[in-house]
Amino acid sequence: MIAIEYHADLKEVQSDAALATLLSSEMQQTPFDRLAWWQGLAEHCGIEPLLAVARDGDSTTVLPLQRANGALSGLANWYSFRLRPVASPGADATGMLTALARDLARKAPRLTLAGLPDEDGSAELVETAFRRAGWIALRETCDTNHVLHLQGRSYDAYLAGRPGPLRTTLKRKTAKVETRIFNQFDAEAWADYEDIYAESWKPSEGSPDFLRGFAQAEGAAGRLRLGVAYAEGRAVAAQMWTIEGGTAFIHKLAHREDAKPLSPGTVLSAALFREVIDTDGVGLIDFGTGNDGYKRDWMEEVRPRYRLEMIRPEAPQNWPFLAKRALKRLAGRGKRG
């Protein structure tokens, strides 16, 4: 018998041994599936969490959600590379998610999950479960994820396959920039990062406290790779990476606009790629979401991220939306005819 429960207080989850273990770094070797990540979002990013949990004996499946303006959506924001359900090993995730979806019909007539991957089957899993539970599930591509599979290559072998202009830039600029990589949190280096970010082309940081707290925790766990580039002793570029489970995640990068002629960001990227490939021995590098042109110089594969809009057809408030969608579909058929 599958039991359903909901947790708005993440301290409750932390004190639940089974849930806390499932959502720990020992079980989830990626930041975005962990309780600590969701706690940070709740504490620093104004997110109101709601973990939907299905249990069947010793098996557990968690769907991380948040409440906003009376609606439910996935527990993620711009810092999250992706969102997906988390299931204990061997769990019947489809059956448990289907039971969860049936129960969620009592809580919301509509549910949006964005950033779902499908290279691991997550988007298909969620779509199937909600449809079995009587929801209309509409899937569309909402973002892209650039990754690099090393397939045993050294840094030098990898670099040899990069575009010619990138390799030429590195030959010309590397000697003009000094780089340092911190494997633990360093307050001075972090201050440099924040100063550089403020003078970069990037928009203002959404939640500096969240990012600093995450960097401190990852540094304490030995997973942080914080790179800083210097020109004539001045910090001019900075990047925040983390590594775990054979994957390097590129979270943040910035350079000062007045240092752009030195290409400090490119030189620093190369130093970090060398570090995680040759020293840390990762097999995958994940450049997060967004289709920025510079990512294509470093990455070799683009994976889609999906949005699933789940709708209860019997809810009157959904009827105008469904009617508009039906008319749009009919109009499209008419044009094709």
TrEMBL record:
Q: Which UniProt keywords apply?
A: Acyltransferase, Transferase
Under InterPro entries, the record lists: Acyl_CoA_acyltransferase, BioF2-like_GNAT_dom
**Which ranges form a coiled coil?**
none
Write the protein's name: GNAT family N-acetyltransferase
Q: Name one GO molecular function term.
A: acyltransferase activity
Reported EC number(s) for this entry are 2.3.1.-
Every copy of the BioF2-like acetyltransferase domain together lies at 167-296
